[in-house]
Specification:
The protein has about 325 residues and is of the alpha/beta class. The chain folds into 2 domains: about 170 residues, Bordetella uptake gene, domain 1 (D-Maltodextrin-Binding Protein, domain 2, 3-Layer(aba) Sandwich), CATH 3.40.190.150; about 100 residues, D-Maltodextrin-Binding Protein, domain 2 (3-Layer(aba) Sandwich). Helices cover about 45% and strands about 20% of the residues. Strand 1, helix 2 and strand 2 form a beta-alpha-beta unit. Helix 2 crosses helix 9 and helix 4 packs across helix 11.
Length: about 325
């Protein structure tokens, strides 16, 4: 009985401690881990959101880039962090696809995190070096089919959004290109602009400025509707690639076991950020917009993540692409 009483007292004390911690949260800066290199599209989204969330929370939200292994290194770091709300993750679609891409993933994307809310779904664009011969998307398809392995396609590594888009493109047109993996889309973009590779599919947050500046040749966007910031650019479906649609959604996560009160505070701050006119305007410049309000809740985010894991699993298995 004494042992039982002591255990109950300890549990009650821990519960009170957790509740008190949640009430006083945040009392120090928060680290927002971005599992990709600085300067990339996901990093851009994170920094815009973090700046606004800092004002709402009254503590600085510091973005930390932990790249490597297609985003799994940074995600794994957050999964193992203390569930106190001071380490959060902003990840893209790779949080769902990593479940099927990696044979030895040291965490479970579906069960080792608490979902905070969806942020934005970013369109992608298929772009090429300026000296590229094809003048339209149908001509690109014909060119790839005719030249196959001679065509070089850059990506940011296994599991990256650019890798997924390229994999879906090659599957759709029925032709393989020579893929060139990079440590992030920044270096891949540099080589595309420099003419060292032929093609790249990347998020509008990273390509809009290059397209507008005439540094790359753009062929199509990957969403079902045209992008407001690039109104003259046709969609893949308009260009003859039926059912080709990819949007790189982003979400915020915390380690499993983080108190609901803390998750709710982070969600509230995220909603303020996504309603911020400055964030909305900057997103628009980058070819995207905040997720609708009904898609920002932790519950919706959790359901959406599960659905995305199920959606991409057969695509990845059919492609036979895996990473250790």
């Amino acid at each position: 009985m004494r042992i039982l009483s002591a255990a109950l007292a300890l549990a009650a004390a821990l519960g009170l401690s957790t509740a008190a911690g949640a009430q006083g949260y945040p009392s120090r800066p928060i680290t927002m881990v971005v599992p990709f290199a600085a300067g990339g599209p996901t990093d851009t989204v994170a920094r815009l959101v973090a700046e606004s969330m800092s004002k709402t929370l009254g503590q600085q939200v510091i973005v930390e880039n932990v790249g490597g292994a297609g985003g799994t290194r940074g995600a794994g770091q957050v999964a193992k962090a203390a569930p106190d709300g001071y380490t959060v993750l902003l990840h893209h679609i790779g949080q769902a696809t990593s479940a099927s891409l990696y044979r030895k993933l040291p965490y479970n994307p579906a069960t080792d995190f608490e979902t905070v809310g969806l942020v934005t779904a970013v369109p992608m664009t298929l772009i090429a070096k300026t000296s590229s011969t094809p003048k339209s998307m149908p001509e690109v398809v014909d060119y790839v089919k005719a030249n196959k392995d001679k065509v070089t396609y850059g990506n940011a590594g296994v599991g990256s959004a650019s890798h997924l888009c390229g994999m879906l493109f090659m599957s759709t047109v029925g032709a393989q290109m020579t893929t060139v993996p990079y440590q992030g889309t920044g270096p891949a973009m540099n080589d595309l602009v420099g003419g060292q590779i032929d093609l790249l599919c990347d998020q509008t947050t990273n390509t809009t400025g290059q397209i507008r500046g005439g540094k790359v040749k753009a062929y199509a966007v990957t969403t079902k509707d045209r992008v407001k910031s690039l109104p003259d650019l046709p969609t893949m479906q308009e260009s003859g690639l039926k059912d080709f649609e990819v949007a790189v959604w982003h979400g915020v996560y915390v380690p499993k076991g983080t108190p609901k009160e803390i998750v709710d505070k982070l969600n509230a701050a995220l909603n303020v950020a996504l309603n911020d006119p400055k964030v909305i305007a900057r997103f628009a410049d980058l070819g995207t917009e905040p997720e609708p309000k009904d898609r920002r809740s932790p519950a919706f985010h959790q359901q959406f993540l599960a659905a995305e894991i199920a959606k991409w699993k057969p695509v990845i298995q059919a492609a036979g692409v895996y990473a250790d």
